[in-house]
């Protein structure tokens, strides 16, 4: 099974980019999925731009699909997710007030898992165009960083990797601080 997975994601097969894209679509629909690891791995198997495109388009497509599913079919799942976590009430208030800004900030600063943002946006009044635009713009910095880490690791540029990891760690700490503030 492990060998089959590696065959899918490594760049040795003709349609590896398609398998990698589909894996990113599916993984981006699951809370707490290892997106950073997969994005870095995919980027390490390509030139930088193709790796970045596979990661960006895959995660954005997965986010869009889960958003649409929560608008139509997963409303009860999304409401259950929302009521389980106290800090999400404040995020939901923000998303109802300014959906574009809430989705954008939620993507840039890891306040909650990407799948959670998709579910909450789906049950809120965030429109399709605002959601997809905020998702793409908000995912770009982190997916760019994950892809760059993978590409730089493959090239052996560890100084660059360290700088990017520090940037991602700072975003993580900022997200944790916001969660604590919203939990009060």
Radius of gyration: 17 Å
Oligomeric state of the chains in view: single chain
Shape: globular
On the 0 to 100 scale, the average pLDDT is 86
Find the structural class using helix and strand composition: mainly alpha
Task: Kindly state the number of beta strands.
Answer: 0
Query: Which range best describes the helical content: under 10%, 10-25%, 25-40%, 40-55%, 55-70% or over 70%?
Result: over 70%
Number of helices: 10
Q: Care to describe what's here?
A:
- It is a single chain.
- By secondary structure, the chain is mainly α.
- 81% of the residues lie in helices and 0% in strands.
- The chain is built from ten helices and no strands.
- The protein has helices spanning 2-9, 16-27, 35-44, 48-72, 75-84, 87-97, 99-108, 114-123, 128-155, 158-182.
- Helix 6 crosses helix 10 (158-182) and helix 9 runs antiparallel to helix 10 (158-182).
The gist of it:
This protein is mainly alpha-helical and 184 residues long. The chain contains ten helices and no strands.
């Amino acid at each position: 099974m492990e060998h089959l997975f590696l065959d899918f994601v490594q760049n040795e097969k003709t349609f590896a980019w398609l398998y990698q894209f589909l894996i990113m679509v599916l993984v981006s629909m699951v809370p707490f999925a290892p997106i950073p690891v997969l994005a870095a791995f995919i980027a390490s198997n390509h030139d930088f731009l193709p790796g970045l495109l596979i990661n960006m388009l895959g995660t954005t497509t997965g986010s869009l699909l889960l958003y649409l599913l929560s608008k139509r079919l997963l409303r009860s799942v999304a409401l259950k997710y929302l009521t389980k976590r106290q800090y999400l009430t404040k995020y939901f208030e923000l998303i109802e007030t300014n959906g574009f800004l809430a989705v954008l900030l939620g993507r840039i600063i890891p306040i909650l898992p990407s799948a959670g943002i998709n579910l909450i946006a789906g049950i809120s009044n965030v429109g399709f165009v605002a959601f997809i635009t905020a998702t793409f713009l908000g995912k770009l910095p982190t997916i760019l960083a994950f892809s760059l880490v993978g590409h730089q690791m493959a090239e052996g540029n560890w100084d660059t990797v360290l700088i990017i990891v520090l940037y991602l760690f700072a975003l993580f700490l900022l997200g944790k601080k916001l969660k604590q503030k919203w939990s009060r």
